[in-house]
What does this fold into?
Amino acid sequence: MIRPIVRDVLFLGRKSEPATRMDGAVGRDLRDTLRANRDRCVGMAANMIGVGKRVIIVNVAFADVVMYNPVLLSKDTPYEAEEGCLSLDGVRKATRYQNIEIEYRDASWKAHRQKYSGWIAQIIQHELDHLEGIII
It folds into this structure.
C-alpha cells in the first residue's frame, strides 16, 4: 500500500524499534511507496511512512532491496555530502563514508552481510540515520 510521507520532525526524531518477522507488511508498504515516488526518491526508512520500526528500502542498481534491522558494521573514507529528503525541505550537509559494510535480514528473515560503496553506500547511511532519529 502506498503510504503518505511523514514530515513531522518530532516523529522522525524518534529512534526506531527493532523489526520482527511480523513486520513484513512494512517492507511491502515501503516498496509500494518508493515506487510511487521513484521520480524523486532512491531510498526510504519506515519512519518516513509513519512506522517506527528498523526497516529501510534502497534502490540498488535495478532492484529495490528491503533491509530489516540493518546494522552498520564498518565504514571508511569520510566525505562531505549534500542530501535532500522527501520528509524534509531543502538540502543538508552530512558526513558520509565511501565504503560501508552492513548486516541485515531480508523478507524471508535470512541474514545478509554486504559491502557497499559510493552512491548506494550514501543512500544506506541516510536511511540508517532515519532509524536512529537523526534528522540531517
